[in-house]
Amino acid sequence: DHITREKLERVLAVIQGTNHKALLMHSNIDMKTQEAYELAVRGLIRPMGKSPPIITAVRCLQFAPPEFQLEIHCLHETQKYLRKVVHEIGLELKSSAVCTQVRRTRDGVFTLDDALLRSQWNLQNIRNAIWSCQVKVQAEIERTL
C-alpha cells in the first residue's frame, strides 16, 4: 500500500536524470556550444565509443499494484542490466521488484514490423526483409550525418 504511482514516477525521474548526465559525460561534446544545442534538440546526442548502459527515457505504462509495466529506452543495454534496474527501483521504493519479462520492441531503426518469425526464415524472406529495410537504414544514415 505504501507504493503509489507518484512515488514510482519520482524514482523513474531520478533514474532518467542520472542517466542523462551520464549520456552527456560520455558524449564528449562541449555542452556550451551551438552544435551541442542542435544535437540535443534533434535527439542525436550519443556516447562516443564504448559506454556503460545508459537509459535515455523511462516511463510507467501501466500501474496496477503489485504489478507495473515500464517502457525503457536505452543504449548498450542487456537483459541483465534491465533486470537490475527493476530491482533497484524496488529498493528505492523500500520494497522489492522483480522483472518478469523483457520485450525488445525496437533496435536502432528496426521495429517489430521489420522482424521475421522463425517460421519465416528462408532465403527469399530474408532477402526481401533486407531489401525493404535499405530505405530505412539509408534515411537513418543521412539523418545522423
From TrEMBL:
Q: Name the InterPro entries for this protein.
A: PsdUridine_synth_cat_dom_sf, PsdUridine_synth_N, Trub2
The protein's GO terms of the molecular function aspect are: pseudouridine synthase activity; RNA binding
A GO BP term here is: RNA processing
Organism superkingdom: Eukaryota
What positions does the domain Pseudouridine synthase II N-terminal occupy? 2-79
Q: Could you say which protein family the record assigns here?
A: Belongs to the pseudouridine synthase TruB family.
Q: Which PANTHER family match?
A: PSEUDOURIDINE SYNTHASE-RELATED, PSEUDOURIDYLATE SYNTHASE TRUB2, MITOCHONDRIAL
Protein name stated in the entry: TRUB2 synthase
Per the UniProt entry, what species is this protein from, by scientific name?
Probosciger aterrimus (Palm cockatoo)
Organismal lineage: Eukaryota, Metazoa, Chordata, Craniata, Vertebrata
